[in-house]
Design a protein that fits this description.
The chain is mainly α. The chain has helices at residues 7-10, 15-22, 36-49, 54-72, 76-92, 98-111, 116-125, 130-143, 147-159, 173-183, 188-196, 200-205. Helix 6 (98-111) packs across helix 8 (130-143) and helix 9 (147-159) crosses helix 11 (188-196).
């Protein structure tokens, strides 16, 4: 009878590791063939989950058109025409609205401490027309004259900088705070107010 200590030398391969080697990789799902109906269904499903500008929705749908063209040989130009008609129809029905989208994003981003500059950049990325961006930003400023300072305070609270530091400031910390605020899009004057404030109340009193 072989020694128990040597049986491992003649034993078969480890079943745990062989299972991983023998497992088949799941097949990638073939993209759905683009058609007016499939694009409409995809757009409605997308809008149920996400708010969107017209241009952003168009880009999302065009990615489907492109995948369909690569996988099924469908016509890209025909697909683009379907997308344009679909987006226009959804806009007429009020299911996608650049103004409503911009106003919602402006308030949501501002509430998280985004600067006016950052909000503007994000709306541009989504293809919102410049005049709608300007009107939405102006509406925020009309509601909150100190909107930029309020956003900077919220940003500082979230990042624990300025008057929200947990520990006493160390040498070089002020410059790091200023740099963080600058990267977030706040102007130098606002950044200095926040970085130098000892308390939130003192900052708001200014």
């Amino acid at each position: 009878m072989p020694n128990a200590k040597t049986t491992g030398e003649n034993a078969g391969p480890d079943t745990g590791s062989s299972m991983g080697r023998g497992r088949k990789k799941p097949r990638r799902r073939k993209p759905r063939k683009a058609s007016p109906k499939s694009l409409e269904n995809a757009a409605l499903y997308y809008l149920k989950r996400f708010s969107s500008s017209e241009e952003n929705l168009r880009r999302v749908m065009m990615r489907r058109v492109e995948r369909s063209a690569r996988a099924h040989g469908t016509d890209r130009e025909e697909g683009a025409a379907w997308v344009d008609e679909l987006v226009a129809r959804l806009a007429r029905a009020g299911l996608v609205d650049d103004r409503r989208y911009a106003e919602g994003r402006v308030h949501a981003l501002h509430a998280r401490g985004a600067s006016i500059r950052l909000i503007t950049a994000k709306l541009r990325e989504k293809g919102v027309p410049a005049e709608i961006i300007e009107e939405s930003i102006q509406a925020l400023r009309d509601e909150q004259p100190d909107a930029e300072l309020e956003a900077a305070i919220r940003f500082a609270r979230r990042r624990r900088i300025g008057p929200f530091r947990i520990k006493p400031p160390v040498e070089g910390r002020r410059q790091k705070d200023l740099a963080a605020l600058a990267r977030a899009g706040f102007d130098y004057g606002t950044a200095m107010k926040v970085a130098d404030a000892e308390t939130e109340d003192a900052l708001r009193e200014e």
